[in-house]
Design a protein that fits this description.
heterodimer; A: alpha/beta; six-stranded mixed β-sheet; two-stranded antiparallel sheet; 8 helices; 10 strands; B: alpha+beta; three-stranded mixed β-sheet; 20 helices; globular; transcription (chain B); zinc ion binding (chain B)
Chain lengths: 292, 597
């Protein structure tokens, strides 16, 4: 790169990965005045303001659907120079149609769970590609515009993604549009050093986005952003799904129980005695034998 | 077998003979049997004085030359020079040469070397007069020689220059010190010595010790990063595919089956701070390099094993000291380690193992007991029978692993075999880093060692921001931001820790979640066969994870891998990132009705 380019890469160049929730069951069940189309127009104005702040800012949009996730928009792709909004909307429409066609569930109660872990993983892979591209790169961050409740089946994958983001020093910001707080995203923002926000008036979403989530990482040290309140790190027990203060952990598989059991239900280990070779386990785990 | 002092002896033969004696004195004592004791050589070397650059060995029936015959030869040269009256011509005691005398204006040539037994006649005279050296320099031969030297533990402290003849019959290795070359240069003013590579001449002219370009040759061995292709041209080694292939092999062996791992580990790191740690083969010295790697290891260890604990031990002066007790906070260990780094004395493996054994006896039965020894010394200075200590460790189920920095030792290998650990010897600093970090992920659990137990743990809540309380770890008042033990309501500053008051282990759910990827590993990806990858319909254009193009430059099919469950294609870098850091397959996570959901 020429020396001139290095002068352009100042501290405040950012790469923003936006994960948009397109789960149709959620958008149907939301009981506020924010419809999906209004939401998209707010988000488009927000993305334009990000791109206006600095010539080198990049924005990548990934859609989190009910059945699949995909890349919708990449501002650094060459063919997108003139018609950013049109290409984004077009690809979004294609994605929503494809997502709907993949749907195999006949009826869904409530908002259902969207695939946040998938879009987080894709965003992190993209960020790793940016890191590999050389010493001059924008500082990446992830913004989740999420609304569906947390899917318990995704706990392990989301935690893996969070720890990987923490190691790469990528903050995960979250803006919750649903009715209830999301414990997963609260933990994500706390662990990675991002901002968690649940706006009170969704009509003014654009104002929340521009005041809280627009600033780059370098400038955040000068601003007073919403602080995390009451992040609940308590675990839930595997037997009753209650949140507990004190519990018992299986030393083999780290499953959490609220009271003393004789046998671990996850890995089948019998507590208090050494394992034998022929103890059957549902996970088909086996230990190595001592004589190698 | 190597010859010493090629140019010196050759030059000495043309010079007044006192310079030959200087050579012997500077280069240390020479044993009567011809073995080389001085300098840094660990090999028996033979001294083969060169006559005008020719190895006399070809003329001698036996390869080595004793000191007495050397002196005799020197005397003979001196007598010759006195008799002839001009500059001493080079004559060997066995064969008189009648060819041209090397005059000061001539360059000292390296004539052709013939195999033993052949006569050297007049053609050498031509050689001598033209000074045509006709040497072959081939990177391959050079590399082989240097690797041969390294493999025999030859410590290269001074320059090693290699020159060889047209016939490639023998390689003459010269070990030259600065003092000698300077002295000889002064005595043979104006005489060019084209005995070795051109760099050497420039170097002698510069009168410098080691310039940067020399260090590239001597220390960094820059030729090793080159490879010859089929036409003999040199190209740099392509690291990316090699690295990926290495990584795939490692991954395949590691995750071939769902093996249970020891997740709650109590590990002692034993650092050897004996005299051997002051060696400078790792820059700046071994002790600093080891400390650096241990610091990185401690951070990585707590990242991957948040419920485990580490303690540090040092081996110094034949005694083992406990530097830090078993604890879960990385900062305290690193601070203690960087505080005192002083080396002295011998390393005692038995004392270290005894101390570890007594310390690890106190831990609960569900924990996995491990020791990682970073051993630089080549010996161990033990008070008793180390075999007994090893058996004691084995019966206490302690898994000992050793990483050697100098060479492989039998006792370390035996220790690791008996206790089920791993033994490796590092070649250089990046290799050491790789070996040390291999011990960070949990090792496979050994069947009889792991007694499953239910451990009582507490999940404290984070206190509100404005609350003032006295924290139990630092014994001072702090405002907000701590955690409250659910059993005794004492405040602790950070997690995971053990409550000082009631002894309850306090963790948060993300700490447990950090280890879940060991319990639910993802399957390794499969390579895409070249026949499939060249078909444009079967392989998508972009990697599913990062949208990078999967085509090599020029629209050729590039390398990609595919997940066996969701059948998505990924690039090689995503493959490495997904399996080493992320532990989620983006394809499987992004499709609701894939097999894994």
């Amino acid at each position: 790169m020429t020396p001139a380019a290095s002068k352009l890469y100042t501290d405040d160049v950012s790469l923003l990965m936006v994960l948009i929730e397109t789960n149709p069951f959620f958008w149907n069940s939301i009981n506020s005045t924010l419809s999906f189309s209004k939401f998209i127009s707010n988000v488009l104005a927000f993305l334009n303001s990000i791109l206006l702040l600095n010539r080198l800012n990049q924005v990548v949009v990934i859609a989190t659907g009910y059945n699949s996730c995909d890349y919708i928009f990449d501002s650094s792709a060459l063919h997108n120079h003139n018609q950013k909004a049109e290409s984004l909307l077009q690809k979004l429409e294609e994605f929503v149609d494809k997502d709907e066609s993949l749907c195999r569930d006949d009826s869904v109660d409530g908002p259902g769970f969207s695939l946040l872990s998938g879009s987080l993983s894709m965003a992190l892979c993209y960020i790793q590609k940016v890191f590999r591209s050389g010493p001059l790169h924008p500082r990446p961050r992830i913004l989740c515009l999420h609304g569906s409740p947390d899917g318990p089946g995704q706990y392990v994958s989301i935690m893996n993604a969070i720890f990987s983001a923490q190691r790469s020093m990528v903050p995960i910001d979250s803006c919750i549009m649903g009715a209830q707080h999301s414990a997963f995203l609260q933990q994500a923002s706390y662990i990675t050093g991002g901002v968690y926000l649940k706006p009170q008036l969704l009509d003014g979403l654009f104002q929340y986005l521009t005041t809280v989530f627009t600033t780059d990482l370098h400038s955040r040290s000068f601003l007073q952003l919403p602080k995390p309140v009451g992040v609940d790190f308590r675990a839930s027990c595997f037997c009753h799904k209650n949140t507990i203060d004190m519990g018992f952990i299986c030393s083999v598989c780290l499953s959490i129980f609220c009271k003393h059991h004789k046998k671990c239900s996850t890995c089948g280990s019998i507590f208090g005695q050494a394992q034998t070779q022929d103890s059957s386990t549902p996970d088909r785990k086996r230990k190595t034998s001592v004589d190698k | 077998m190597f010859c010493i002092g090629a140019a010196a002896a050759a030059a000495a033969a043309t010079l007044p003979s006192p310079s030959l004696s200087f050579l012997l004195e500077w280069n240390g004592s020479v044993a009567g049997d011809g073995s080389w004791l001085g300098g840094d050589a660990h090999l028996p070397l033979s001294i083969l004085p060169l006559v005008n650059g020719t190895a006399v060995s070809f003329l001698y029936p036996s390869p080595s030359l004793s000191l007495s015959s050397l002196c005799e030869w020197r005397r003979a040269c001196r007598d010759d020079s006195r008799r002839s009256g001009n500059r001493p011509e080079l004559r060997s005691p066995l064969q008189r040469r009648t060819d041209a005398v090397a005059s000061p204006q001539n360059q000292i040539p390296i004539p052709k070397l013939k195999p033993a037994g052949k006569e050297r006649g007049a053609e050498e005279g031509d050689e001598a007069s033209t000074g045509n050296t006709r040497r072959i320099r081939s990177g391959a031969i050079q590399r082989r020689v240097i690797s041969l030297l390294r493999s025999k533990y030859f410590t290269v402290k001074n320059r090693i220059s290699v020159s060889w003849s047209v016939d490639g019959v023998e390689v003459l290795v010269r070990k030259f010190g600065i003092g000698v070359s300077n002295m000889l240069r002064q005595e043979t003013n104006g005489e060019e010595r084209r005995l070795n590579r051109d760099e050497e001449d420039e170097e002698e002219e510069n009168d410098r010790g080691r310039d940067a370009w020399e260090r590239t040759y001597a220390d960094e061995r820059s030729w090793e990063s080159l490879q010859e292709d089929e036409s003999g041209l040199l190209r740099p080694i392509d690291n990316k595919t090699l690295y990926h292939a290495q990584y795939r092999r490692r991954l395949r062996t590691a995750t071939s089956a769902r093996i249970q791992k020891g997740l709650i580990r109590y590990l002692y790191v034993v650092i050897d701070l004996s005299r051997a740690a002051t060696e400078i083969d790792y820059k700046p010295n071994r002790m600093v390099v080891v400390a650096r790697q241990v610091e990185a290891f401690i951070r990585e260890f707590f990242d991957q094993n948040p419920l485990s604990q580490i303690g540090l031990l040092t081996l110094k002066d034949g005694v083992a000291h406990c530097l830090t007790e078993l604890g879960g906070s990385p900062e305290s260990h690193i601070k203690a380690l960087m505080g005192k780094l002083v080396c002295s004395g011998d390393a005692s493996l038995q004392n270290g193992l005894d101390l570890v054994h007594s310390l690890l006896n106190q831990i609960p039965s569900y924990g996995h007991r491990e020791v990682l020894i970073l051993y630089s010394a080549l010996s161990t200075c033990d008070p008793g029978d180390i075999m007994e200590t090893i058996q004691k460790c084995k019966s206490s189920k302690i898994r000992c692993s050793v990483i050697g920095l100098s060479a492989e030792l039998y006792i370390c290998k035996y220790l690791c075999q008996e206790t089920g650990g791993s033994y490796s010897v590092s070649l250089d600093e990046p290799h050491l880093k790789e070996l040390v970090l291999e011990h960070a992920p949990p090792p496979p659990a050994i069947a009889e060692f792991a007694i499953a137990n239910l451990i009582k743990m507490g999940f404290p809540q984070r206190a509100a921001e404005g609350v003032i309380s006295i924290c139990s770890c630092h014994k001072e008042a702090k405002v907000g931001g701590g955690y409250t033990c659910p059993r005794c309501k004492a405040r602790v500053c950070e997690l995971p820790t053990e409550c000082c008051i009631c002894g309850l282990t306090l963790v948060s759910s993300p700490h447990l979640a950090r280890s879940y990827h060991h319990l639910f590993p993802i399957t390794p990806f499969d390579d895409v066969a070249p026949s499939v990858s060249s078909d444009p319909h079967k392989v998508p254009k972009n990697c599913f994870g990062c949208q990078q193009s999967l085509l090599a430059p020029g629209n050729l099919p590039g390398l990609s891998v595919t997940c066996p469950k969701c059948k998505q294609h990924f690039c090689l870098d995503c493959d490495i990132y997904i399996h080493e850091s992320l532990h989620n397959c983006p394809g499987c996570e992004s499709f609701k009705h894939s097999e894994s959901q």
